[in-house]
Protein 1
Amino acid sequence: MAEAQSAQSPVAPSKQVGRPRRSEQALLDAAAAVFVASGVDAPVREIAAKAGVGMGTIYRHFPTRSELVVAVYRHQVESCAEAGPRLLAESTTPEAALRAWAALFVDFLVTKHGLAGALQGVSAGSDTLHAYFIDRLVPVCGTLLEAAREPIDATTPPIDAYNVLKGIGNLCIGAAGAARYEAAALVQLLISGVLAQGAR
Amino acid sequence: MAEAQSAQSPVAPSKQVGRPRRSEQALLDAAAAVFVASGVDAPVREIAAKAGVGMGTIYRHFPTRSELVVAVYRHQVESCAEAGPRLLAESTTPEAALRAWAALFVDFLVTKHGLAGALQGVSAGSDTLHAYFIDRLVPVCGTLLEAAREPIDATTPPIDAYNVLKGIGNLCIGAAGAARYEAAALVQLLISGVLAQGAR
DNA sequence: AACATTACGGAACAGCGCTCCGTAATGCAA
DNA sequence: TTGCATTACGGAGCGCTGTTCCGTAATGTT
């Protein structure tokens, strides 16, 4: 029934009745503000209050908590991903590019409280977040890795980009809290080990 | 007042009236069983139920959750700490000793679900646990590290045992869950990097 | 036998993530 | 202009968590 859609267009699945997305952007802004203030594990109620909306609104726009986090940090993850090829082109050596990119990534993770933890499933229900990070950054990391290590010697299969990326992420967990803990230095040392594995 | 403590001994602060610690050992056994089944983040109620005691009993014996975890794993941490000097004496090279010890430590962390995470404050209120691990294992790790790396070259201060230990711990987070994630390999690569830093 | 002392058990509190539904706002149609 | 279908909204409610607290029961001593 009701093919009498009158004129306009036969395809018009979203009638767009009711109030349009008024709060989506306000929500993202508020979430970003709360994340920097209280970390990515901040209570959902706090975000809702800051944005001046109810709980329901948050969960309709972002069915799971991870999706909110992803939405907030999408721009920065994207720019981090795009930095990979650019660094490879600009740097004098592939190794320098890899190290610079890792430093960039570490800085990103460390400055967002708890992001590194949420990245790999320690925090509950970070499915989407983990998947997004992996999907977007593993290829970038892989390209840098391939370029940086000598292809010679194949007695033992070298560690793959997925493991390197997760290793870097793990090393950044809790880095913002402990003063004596130097995640960036450890990451560079890990990379040294990874590259030494390739060479012989 | 009340120096009339009769005979026995003037110092006897614990009169030991009432039921003695009947449940302490049962508690530890139950906690250990639950930890292997559901990880160290298992609900306290689950531990209490398994042990057949009430919540109050747990929190009287172990005021904070960390202390219970520490008590459960004290033996294994201790044996891990003692393995350090022994490996150093038995191994052909100090590097081999360090690597073997790290493998031991990694195996310990990975087999206990969530222990690595609880080790460094990602899980809430793991103060005591973190302190105990650090206090007990940093010296051991430091000894192995000193022995394994050449003392030459001092342009840049090498990374300290605290950071190496925390780095190893962090790399083990979530290792039991992700099939493709190879924490042990990453730890060995990190060590490669650390040792390469010392040499030149 | 009666008591003081201690351990015990579980109800109760505060916090969390997430769901659900009654209500209010909105744009199109008559 | 008026009415209505459609959609977004807000927050109470549910189940779960860690932790505290207190009435009660068991115990060794007097």
Protein 2
Amino acid sequence: MNPKPPGRPRSDAARRAILDAAVALCVDGGYANVTIKAIADAAGVGRQTVYRWWPTRGAVLLEAMGEVGAAHGAPPPSGDPVADLRVFLEATFRLAHKAPVADILLGLTSDAFADEQLAARLRGYIAERRALLAEVLERQGADGWRVPVPTVVDLVFGAMWYRLMNQHGPVGPELTEQVLVVVAALRQA
Amino acid sequence: MNPKPPGRPRSDAARRAILDAAVALCVDGGYANVTIKAIADAAGVGRQTVYRWWPTRGAVLLEAMGEVGAAHGAPPPSGDPVADLRVFLEATFRLAHKAPVADILLGLTSDAFADEQLAARLRGYIAERRALLAEVLERQGADGWRVPVPTVVDLVFGAMWYRLMNQHGPVGPELTEQVLVVVAALRQA
DNA sequence: CTGTAACGAGACACCCTGTCTTGTAAAGTC
DNA sequence: GACTTTACAAGACAGGGTGTCTCGTTACAG
């Protein structure tokens, strides 16, 4: 039902090298340092090979982020919803601190303002992350929130991103505990 | 005590034309459309005139945003702190919706990742906006918050930015009312 | 009138973009 | 083994932005 198309098959080695090179370039040099030409050169790949499979650098980085995100899901229910939330927040905040993640996602967001296709795919990625947090929150109950759960998600992830964006405050254990206090206060008394 | 330096004085007309052109370019074409060359051409100005006073496009746009921000302060205390907060949030959300503001600030943030000087100045701008909200919040009392006021500021502005960034939800009256509920819940019972 | 510095205009080398071309490599088909 | 088809690495190419530099001009002070 999925007959192989004729011709030389896509090189998975080239795909890996491109994704890895894109992330590596972002690590040392920042998002602005990531260009299609630089990716191709660093990956030891022809530029056309990149353009054949991805329309923009954003598409490359988004696919790389997808792999990272897929490896960071919600924790299995432990029976204590608040503990689950703490675990998820700690993992998320740690992930956000890994060198290029915040830089990449912010750059993608910026690029997305001028690229509707990229914007749509980025929204999909963000929606997955939001759904993950919503699920963990609703382990405390689907009802009985003072504001809708999606708004709670926006408050929590928003505070995280806002700090990462402007680097005016830490995204760490203190924030985790404060978020837990806020979430508790948003449960009906 | 401030003797005029010799030579031709700086042209205020050129300054204005450059700032206005930068914003106009962002309105139609997005942040990516704003380049030093485009600014200079649109402003009818030599490119060197831009480089003489601003090191990067980011510096130009940040100065333009400073003017916008300066025109949007906190409302005078009405006696009802909650009403004050509502007024401030409504004005802020309306401002964030004005065509280029979100685009510019997001683009600046992205540029700032690769430009420490710009980052520092942007942090200053953000700090002003954060201080404004903190002041309005503390009209309800400087003490008695379940989490520190700066964290409340991050939650509120964070949610706003997070929605503006990813455009997954509206930044409008509903959010205003939900934020008011959250703020009320964060006052000690 | 002279000195000084900003101004508009544009030349210059450099880099990235996105497309195109060339020759080669890897798969299925006959 | 020849043929077809597609991916591959390498690089040429025009177009556009960068940041610097050089013109000749303009505005203000002494």
